[in-house]
Amino acid sequence: MTRAFALLCLLAGPAGAEPCRPHAQLEGDPAAVASVTAELVKLGVVVGASAGAGCKTVFAAVELARDGGLAIAVKTGTQSEGRTVSDAVVAASWIDSWVADDFSPPQPDPNGFFDLRPATPVAAPGADVAAEAGPAPSEHAYGVAVSVGADQSLSFDGKRWSGLSGGACVQRDAWCFGGRARYASQDILVDQTAARRTDFEALATASYTKQLGRVQVIPELGLGIGKMTTDRVNGCRHVSCDPREPGCMEPPPDMECIEHDPVHAYTLALDDHLHVGSVTPRAAARVRFASALADHVYLDGIAALTLAPFGHSDPYGLPLGELPPPGVPPEQVALPGQSIGTFELGLGLHWESR
Fold it and tell me: In this structure, which CATH number among 3.40.50, 3.10.450, 3.30.479, 3.20.20 belongs to the domain 18-133?
């Protein structure tokens, strides 16, 4: 009888003393949730199901962060906290520290649990994760963004330009409102003459940032004004008479000029001091593809289209009262007018504070 009683006590006593297995439920961006889930499983955490009575379940929202990492908001019971981590391994380790039986995280400030706006909840059937996590705060995110870039552009008349640009804007959530300036220049050979052209534009801009994986796509629209100037560049060739006339002797080449300026060796030295310019309204559309280099610093790939529909499109001839050299048709010394638009491709950097 004594042996039977002892056996009964052994069977009835410690059967319910098995420790709780860690449980977690995740929601948010599907790709981010999948990568963190895989790492949690490696750590022995049960994902997607609620723990039994008396055991703890941690709820976590996981999203792709703007800098390429992962943004996580964790809640269990009355405690919650949010942070940004570098990758899924660190994210899983941090969530695992919350589900450990011997871990009691500190109580955060009232605004410590931030709004991740999860895209697709991932939870066990019947589990109301959104209700358990509570409402997200509605504060807006503000910051400042500064960008610089260098580009090569092709105007609609087929001429190539080299440009530099810089801009700044104030961020409100995904929107950014500010301004941008760009300076571009070119040296061109046109028939028997040459010119140097410059272009400066200043635009008010509005842009929107969309995070796609680890890349930011930033479309931008701009409106403003621009000024293009055209200056004649004197060449090294002088013409004193019509070579078609008998007895016309061409002057010898200016070897010193050719040595110092071989690009313009065979263009005419007109000495007409031609300088013209025009101011026009501008409209621009650009898109930047930004990849994070470091915290808050991004490398940009830039494509842009700028329109100047009211520019001086007619060729610039000789100033009033000036005549072309003997035997040179006037159209051979005319300089091209302003193109109605340019297409730009470039690289840049941008920094943002938030």
Answer: 3.40.50
